[in-house]
Fold:
Amino acid sequence: MTAISPNSAPPGVTTSLHQGASQTSKQVKDKLFHYGLVGAATLVLIILGAIIVMLFKGGLPALETFGLGFFFSTEWNPVTEEYGAGVMLYGTLITSVIAMILAFPASLGIALFLTEVAPQSLRRPIGTAVQLLAAVPSIIYGMWGFFIVVPLMSGWVQPFLTTIFGPIPLIGELFSGAPAGTGILTAGLILALMIMPFITAMFVEIFVSVPPVLKEAAYGVGATTSEVFRAVTVPYGRTAIVGAVMLGLGRALGETMAVTFVIGNANRIKSTLYAPGASIASTIANEFPEAGPGSMKLHALLELGLALFIISFLVLALARFLVRPRMGD
Amino acid sequence: MTNTAAASMRASLAAVALLGCFTAPVLAGDFTGAGATFPAPVYGAWGSDYKAATGSALNYQAIGSGGGQTQILNRTVDFGASDAPMDPAKLEKGNLLQFPTVVGSVVVIVNLDGVKADELKLSGPVVADMYLGKITKWNDPVIAKMNPGVTLPDLAILPVYRSDGSGTTYVFTTYLSSVSADWKGKVGAATSVKWEAGNGAKGNDGVAGSVKNAKGAVGYVEYVYASANSLTTTQLQNKAGKFVKPTVPAFQAAAASADWASVKNFDASMIDTAGETAWPIVSATFILLPKDPKEPANSLEVMKFFDWAYAKGDEAAEKLHYIALPAAVKDRVRAAWASEIKDASGAPIWKK
Structure:
């Protein structure tokens, strides 16, 4: 692909021949560099295409066997070879939603503190700590979640939540059942902790980019910090904030190891958030090594992968679309 | 295209999952294998002893039984390893010889205050009913009747199972299927199944950790793992009606009472055997070797390695709490090598 024949050189190369060999070799080098860059960029597209083709072709037999019902069926039975993505889709979405509900206000608070309230001497250490948290590998969150958070949830948090919310109709149902520690709620909590630093870092960027003159004008007419935040900072960066949240959601959807540790890994949907469940990523991580060659289970797992790919792609595309105009200015 | 892509994705995923599976350059006399995680420690020990003795090195990657089957079907390794015996039709189609290497066992563990290791007595159907969600309290009359003198609390039973597909789950569910018709009808046996109750945790350490985390939990792990971590194991009732403790002699009794002579592909069941002292959940782990190897020299290395392991590796295996095969079975495997594995000209590769 990078080989160059003399014929393919543009007119500039031939006219510059008389200027000396060094000029020509410089142009050839530049050409090579150009093609190298094009090749590198093409590679990304080829890999993306190859992944889509592999997931689509690999998952096709599952789709042919189970039809579109694959995405709604809650049956996942390796013994009878009946597979459906319902439990995993539910688990993936509900854990991500819980994570967003917990992470969004917390991130907003941290980012506001860092940009508006904290003294200059505190901003750097806390900002660095947030960035360090974002860099902790997910398996560490998983192990920490399994050995520290799960016993805490089972011993304290879940019984406490049951006494608070238990008597309320409908909502009480979400916080009922045996406090096993693992489950949907714990997975959502760990996910929230994982995406919080990521979202916070982006919120800080957004708030910093709000023109100071707007905020100063608001303070000038006597607005308080919270009023400036609600009336100026957030509305100004609204689109970018939604975009940052979507990016965080994209991360939560595909998170694998940490979720596998704490979600409880059961192919059942129960009304309570204490019940164990499964996400798409955790199911693939769990079942892939033992999925036999050419088996329907392997096809079903690849189809699950395609579903996750599409969901993540849509969420990220929406996020990029929302973030771009504001961040660009 | 799909197959190779899937296989390579599987391989890379598994490698990532295992954090630190890397491919060393293959030197002359070296041979590669991939598959089952359950015997990985003993293959590792044999590999290093064998290298010290002969200079040939084994490169074994514990990527899981399913991965091992795929890799040997694609002939990307010299041998595959699988905990569950491979489907006979697939063996035939892939032109593979299957033979056992060592025997392992699965034990039941519990987390109950005041209950010591090997104190609690359980039967197969009771364990099946716990995992079916039918027996939900530890002070259930069925359990109490089996355990006079043991105080059982009014506590919910929390079954814990392997969330990842595993040979251990295959062995455990095969046992439950053979002792409980209810289990066989509702759930069945496989490397992963549709569990009716409880929580899933990843790996032996995940199951052990989950059982430790929650009072009233019950789980199953390989004996190797339970003994190394001093977990609270239980007794089980065997086919003869006797309650036995999980001990090496009880596992050996099961291996000895299995019927190796009349089965094909060495697929002898050691589940719920008839022996009076036999532990009921025992199983072999298997090697898959091509009958028409592309590189006969490498296949010969594999056979030499396992011949050496059969002759000199029992002690290393038992140190790691695996059970060696009976001598008669080993000879049967050697005879199968001589008659089944052939080079391009049709001459046997193994000559001894």
